[in-house]
């Protein structure tokens, strides 16, 4: 592996991250005394904090409410080292009060090469300190040249833009370390300047914050509430980015308009809640039964999966329009009997051997808008545990000899059944077993 | 440049030539046969429930025009979707996001989908707390999207509009064993505030082509059919 060349060391930065004074700290919403009140007091406290830090280093600047930073090289030399500098900063901000509790604020302090590494170090210091009992924040000083090592483990979600990190994840690039290891020219050529800037930051070659990065105030991303909040924050940032129309290219990955971009954000939020395959898009393709002709394609990337050309060729043995509106992913067992309880079969010539009079759909899942038949009071219960409905009429059977050329050959016949309750079903029979394939709801 | 053209060309032509974006309008479009029930379309920001035998077909019909005009819709909680039927009803499947299995955090999922889609069709779980229902209704109102709730039995809050399918009867599967051809049904609209006055209309839900229509069917040839002619 080629050694990464560092032309000259990056400027050292010290970041102070005070979670309580972030304007988006969720506690402000529940303080019962009105959000504006809490917000104003937090702003004043943060001004005190910036003053306190600024007394030690006049070059302090505010990154966002709750977070400030300054170049630390000269100050560290004055105090006799970065650890000593960080301790002095920590002492200085003890005088700042949390407006909610009246105690002094807690803040994470990180020192590292470049803004991104220093901010993440400060966040890490805060998160580690919060887990201790009693909570005690230790400044985190990343040694010079240690940025790639610090950033290697961070997930690409840190990049903020779900369209970008979604695509990277889809390509198997899960951490900033993975991104740093890719060839630089190809990253720039394929993903553009934004991702290239992130790569440079991950390699410890870039001082400024990469584009699109907004410090997310939440330090805890574990638990359902944290994940939801993170998803909302990202969506909010997305909208802010789209509105300003700056360096972002919302339609770059193939979305035609803002509508798709908005849905893509929602899909990303849902995937974050439920997992990568939670969102899908339906497709129709060739096939005989409704179950074969419709299927789901998981929406795994930043854009919806592409739509194939519509199937126009006829399929022998397919069921004609109108198609059933409810098609379960897996057909469920059913029973179709004559009035005296004998099961109906299909003869070799493809005809029913008896007139069906009773239908039982025990396996119909709860996911239907109504529990087919049983809750509507029309079906009568015969025997134990199964609900029978009277058959009012049927159509078919339509035999289908599938894949007769291969060992996977299947001979089936399909039957439409209308019950006395007015519900219509599509059933199929194979080797004497009936299954429920669809409901015409 | 477009604005310059508007000044020169006949304004009515310019209005028609404008891209068909529904995002700014107060209403989501609906297919023509449903306009008796929903004059002007589906008002944004409301909760609408669709009930009765045929509710799924009617729900697909409600979102069909929105998807075909390029807006996104989503469907959540229903893991038995007939995509062929949806496509026949006019739904652009390329504009319908599907979350089949929502798990325990279904309310968060629906809230996220309401952020991204103009309409969300929801099959709610068995027990919904009133506070959750109110929260989702408020979310739809804030995001100016429409929450379409399938079935009424589990939804604790009264929706702005209720559509109930009544007296549904299939044509086909009769004594001649001809295939299912179409379903005639009465759909009754009721609701709160402006929609309080009930309106009823007879619809083919669906017609033999799979679409929703209100007109009479072309001559009923199903009685002349013999068994097996349903095979295409």
Please describe what this structure looks like.
The complex is a heterodimer of chains A (441) and B (232). Among the domains of chain A are: 12-146, 2-Layer Sandwich (Alpha-Beta Plaits), CATH 3.30.70; 332-439, no CATH class. The radius of gyration of chain A is 32 Å and the shape is elongated. In chain A, α2 packs across α3, α8 (184-191) packs antiparallel against α9 and α10 packs antiparallel against α11. Chain A is of the alpha+beta class. Chain A has twelve helices and 14 strands. In chain A, the strands form three sheets. Chain A has a six-stranded antiparallel beta barrel with strand order 8-9-11-12-13-14. In chain A, strands 2-3-1-4-5 form a five-stranded mixed sheet, sandwiched between helices. Chain B has 232 residues and is an alpha/beta fold. Chain B has a domain at 26-166: Rossmann fold (3-Layer(aba) Sandwich), CATH 3.40.50.300. In chain B, the strands form two sheets. Chain B has an eight-stranded mixed sheet, sandwiched between helices. Chain B has a two-stranded antiparallel ribbon with strand order 1-2. The longest helix of chain B is centred in the first third of the chain and has 14 residues, at 55-68. Chain B is globular. The model of chain B is unreliable at 1-23 and 219-232 (pLDDT under 50). The interface between A and B is large, with 72 and 72 residues.
Label this structure with key terms.
heterodimer; A: 441 residues; alpha+beta; Alpha-Beta Plaits; six-stranded antiparallel beta barrel; five-stranded mixed sheet; 12 helices; 14 strands; B: 232 residues; alpha/beta; Rossmann fold; eight-stranded mixed sheet; disordered N terminus; disordered C terminus
Please write out the topology.
The complex is a heterodimer of chains A (441) and B (232).
Chain A: E1 12-17, H1 35-56, E2 61-64, E3 67-71, H2 73-79, H3 82-92, E4 108-113, H4 115-131, E5 140-141, H5 147-151, H6 162-170, H7 176-180, H8 184-191, H9 193-202, H10 223-244, H11 258-274, E6 280-284, H12 290-293, E7 294-298, E8 332-337, E9 358-360, E10 380-381, E11 387-402, E12 410-419, E13 424-430, E14 433-439
Parallel strand pairs in A: 4-5
Antiparallel strand pairs in A: 1-3, 1-4, 2-3, 6-7, 8-9, 8-14, 9-11, 10-11, 11-12, 12-13, 13-14
Helix pairs in contact in A: 2-3, 8-9, 10-11
Chain B: H1 2-8, H2 11-17, E1 27-28, E2 42-43, E3 47-51, H3 55-68, E4 73-76, H4 83-88, E5 96-99, H5 106-116, E6 119-122, H6 130-143, E7 146-150, E8 161-171, E9 182-191, E10 199-204
Parallel strand pairs in B: 3-7, 3-8, 4-5, 4-6, 6-7
Antiparallel strand pairs in B: 1-2, 8-9, 9-10
């Amino acid at each position: 592996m080629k050694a990464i060349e560092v032309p000259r060391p990056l400027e050292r930065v010290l970041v102070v991250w005070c979670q309580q004074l972030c304007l988006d700290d969720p506690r402000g919403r529940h303080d019962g005394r009105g959000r504006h009140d809490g917000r104003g007091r937090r702003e004043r406290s943060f001004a005190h904090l910036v003053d306190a830090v600024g007394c030690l280093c006049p070059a302090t600047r505010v990154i966002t409410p709750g977070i400030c930073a300054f170049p630390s090289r000269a100050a560290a030399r004055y105090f006799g080292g970065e650890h000593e500098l960080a301790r002095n900063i920590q002492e200085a901000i003890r005088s700042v009060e949390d407006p909610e509790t009246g105690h002094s604020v807690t803040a994470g302090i990180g020192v590292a090469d470049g803004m991104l590494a220093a901010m993440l170090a400060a966040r890490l210091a805060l998160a580690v300190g919060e887990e201790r009992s009693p909570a005690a924040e230790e400044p985190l000083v990343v040694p010079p040249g240690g940025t790639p090592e610090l950033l290697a483990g961070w997930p690409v979600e840190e990049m903020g833009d779900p369209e970008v990190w979604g695509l990277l994840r889809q390509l198997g690039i899960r951490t900033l370390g993975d991104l740093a290891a890719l060839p630089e020219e190809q990253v720039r050529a394929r993903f553009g300047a934004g991702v290239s800037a992130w790569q440079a930051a991950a390699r410890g070659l870039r001082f400024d914050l990469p584009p699109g990065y907004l410090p997310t105030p939440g330090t805890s991303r574990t638990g359902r509430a944290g994940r939801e909040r993170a998803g909302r924050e990202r969506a909010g940032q997305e909208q802010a980015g789209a509105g300003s129309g700056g360096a972002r290219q919302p339609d770059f990955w193939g979305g035609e308009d803002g509508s798709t971009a908005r849905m893509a954000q929602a899909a990303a939020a849902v995937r974050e809640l439920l997992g990568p395959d939670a969102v899908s898009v339906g497709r129709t393709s060739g096939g005989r039964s409704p179950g074969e002709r419709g299927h789901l394609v998981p929406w795994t990337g930043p854009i919806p999966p592409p739509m194939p050309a519509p199937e126009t060729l006829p399929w022998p043995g397919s069921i004609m329009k109108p198609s059933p509106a409810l098609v379960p992913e897996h057909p469920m067992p059913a029973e179709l009997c004559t009035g005296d309880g004998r099961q109906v079969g299909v003869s070799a010539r493809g005809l029913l051997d008896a007139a069906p009079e009773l239908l039982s759909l025990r396996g119909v899942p709860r996911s239907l808008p109504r529990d087919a038949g049983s809750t509507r009071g029309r079906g009568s219960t015969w025997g134990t545990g199964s609900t029978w409905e009277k058959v009012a009429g049927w159509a078919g059977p339509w035999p289908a000899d599938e894949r007769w050329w291969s060992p996977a050959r299947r001979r089936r016949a399909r039957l439409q059944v209308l019950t006395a309750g007015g519900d219509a079903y599509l059933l199929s029979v194979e080797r004497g077993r009936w299954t429920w394939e669809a409901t015409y709801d | 440049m477009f604005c310059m053209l508007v000044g020169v060309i006949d304004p009515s032509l310019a209005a028609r030539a404008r891209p068909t974006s529904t995002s700014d309008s107060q209403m989501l479009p609906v297919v023509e046969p449903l306009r008796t029930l929903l004059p002007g379309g589906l008002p944004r920001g409301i909760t609408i429930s669709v009930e009765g035998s045929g509710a799924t077909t009617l729900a697909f019909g409600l979102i069909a025009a929105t998807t075909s005009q390029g807006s996104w819709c989503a469907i959540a909680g229903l893991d038995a979707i007939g995509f062929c039927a949806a496509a026949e009803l006019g739904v652009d499947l390329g504009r319908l996001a599907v979350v089949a299995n929502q798990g325990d955090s279904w309310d968060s999922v629906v809230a996220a989908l309401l952020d991204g889609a103009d309409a969300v069709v929801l099959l709610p779980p068995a027990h919904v707390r009133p506070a959750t229902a109110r929260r989702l209704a408020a979310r739809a109102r804030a995001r100016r999207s429409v929450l379409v709730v399938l079935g009424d039995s589990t939804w604790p809050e009264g929706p702005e509009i209720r559509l109930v399918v009544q007296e549904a009867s299939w044509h086909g599967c009769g004594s001649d064993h001809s295939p299912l051809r179409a379903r005639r049904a009465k759909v009754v609209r009721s609701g709160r505030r402006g929609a309080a006055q009930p309106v009823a209309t007879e619809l083919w839900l669906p017609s033999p082509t799979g679409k929703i229509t209100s007109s009479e069917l072309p001559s009923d040839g199903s009685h002349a059919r013999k068994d097996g002619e349903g095979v295409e």
